[in-house]
Write a structure and sequence with these properties.
By secondary structure, the chain is mostly helical. The protein has 16 helices and 2 strands. The radius of gyration is 21 Å and the shape is globular.
Length: 431
């Protein structure tokens, strides 16, 4: 069977990670977050950065051990020696990639309709199809496209930071003003964590990275730190330009901030940049989702056909098509805030298992070579993954009961799918 081709170095992979994180979340959800946390929203982003760093360090150690596609599936399988648990984590990762790609494509379409009069669903489907073609052509082309998207997206946030820092305020701003107290800050933190997720998908292109055991850990940490700094600065900037009540009501918060600072031209510029931001998120989730399916199929946890590599493009083309079809089907879901919460719920469960996997492997596989180790250890025991595990469990119980139920339904569907596939395997083994 053909192998994936290694094209990505530290720069491209770091930019890939920055592009993964600096996607639709910050452009769409910061208004909702400000409405919950007020001027203290920067604290919510700081908390998000800390949790992302905990998870990022754990991913960095695990990718230095097992630089494989379907990363979460691989990590959990090696740690817990249980194919069922590994399958469920891989399933959660794959399904959230599909939902995120579909929902963010609708966000793209909402901006795109300002320039081209097309139905939102049609625009969303066209975007998914177009970016699936890029995904099929190859990881090199995908990483270059994403690098361009990431630079433009970061440029938009850089503009917001510049406007915020140079904006003349008429009254002193209390950056600790929290209209809903610590509860509002925590709720905003849970919501905006959607804006941080994505770096974990860097591990799913491990088989297309040069010197992955060294490059992956460095790129993961760099991307989380870079984006965390940008987010906190953006949070400070937006409340300098617009008061938190107006931001909380806005459906296009960053465009409204630019409009207030420099007029209609600023709003139009940010809308164009938002197109790049949302397109970047869709492209990356399509790439990562197809690699998750490829890796799980390669490990015989999904139909083997999903692991077939195209002879010319060296990409898992059947997995690419599967993600394309499923994501198009999900375009009919809609509300990005609801889906963001569903996605974060699934992600924090995954992060909890990843942090736990680091702890378990320190004891079950102590002799394995680790080119990167999570810092702050007591003997073999890694302290930071324990904090990361505790925080993600706390986050998981902060969601509304409806969100948790949807998450459990997604897990339940995965269980059914696992049982069906296992029965088919048993029949084939008997034959």
């Amino acid at each position: 069977m053909s192998e994936l081709k290694r094209h990505m170095g530290l720069f491209h992979l770091t930019m890939y990670g920055v592009g993964l994180i600096l996607g639709a979340g910050i452009y769409v959800l910061i208004g909702e977050a400000v409405g919950l946390a007020g001027n203290s929203v920067w604290i919510s982003f700081l908390l998000g950065t800390i949790v992302a760093i905990f998870a990022g360090l754990s991913y960095a150690e695990l990718t230095s051990l097992f630089p494989k596609a379907a990363a979460e599936y691989t990590f959990v399988k090696h740690a817990f020696k249980n194919n069922f648990i590994a399958f469920i984590i891989g399933w959660l990762t794959a399904i959230t990639s599909m939902i995120t790609a579909a929902t963010v494509s609708l966000g793209f379409a909402g901006y795109f309709v300002q320039f081209v009069n097309l139905p939102i669903t049609i625009s969303a489907i066209l975007l998914i199809v177009g970016l699936s073609i890029v995904n099929f052509i190859g990881i090199k082309e995908s990483s270059w496209a994403n690098t361009i998207f990431a630079i433009v997206t970061a440029g938009g946030l850089g503009l917001i930071i510049f406007l915020g820092m140079t904006f003349e305020v008429t009254e002193p701003i209390d950056y600790f003003d929290a209209p809903n107290g610590m509860t509002g800050i925590i709720l905003a933190f849970v919501l905006i964590f959607f804006a941080f997720i994505g770096f974990e998908d860097m591990a799913n292109v491990a088989e297309e990275v040069k010197r992955p055991k060294k490059t992956l850990p460095r790129a993961i940490i760099l991307s989380v730190v870079i984006t965390g700094i940008i987010y906190v600065l953006v949070a400070f900037s937006v409340v300098r330009i617009l008061n938190w009540e107006e931001l909380g009501r806005s459906t296009a918060p960053l465009a409204d901030v630019a409009d207030h600072a420099i007029g209609l031209g600023g709003s139009l510029t940010l809308s164009v940049i938002a197109l790049f931001a949302t397109a970047s998120t869709v492209l990356i989730t399509l790439v990562a989702g197809s690699r998750i399916l490829y890796g799980m199929a390669k490990n015989n946890s999904l139909p083997k056909s999903l692991s077939i590599i195209h002879s010319k493009t060296k990409t898992p083309w059947i997995a690419v098509i599967a993600i394309l079809i499923t994501s198009v089907a999900f375009t009919f879901i809609g509300d990005i805030v609801i889906v963001a919460n569903i996605t974060v719920f699934a992600v924090v469960i995954t992060f909890a298992m990843i942090n736990l996997a680091v702890i378990v492997l320190r004891y079950t596989e102590p002799k394995l070579e680790r080119s990167f180790r999570v810092p702050l250890n007591i003997g073999k025991f890694p302290v930071l993954p324990l904090f990361g595990f505790a925080v993600t469990i706390y986050m998981a119980v902060q969601f509304q009961i409806e969100i948790m139920l949807v998450g459990l339904v997604i897990i339940g569907i995965g269980v059914v799918f696992y049982l069906i596939l296992n029965k088919r395997k048993e029949k084939l083994d008997v034959k």
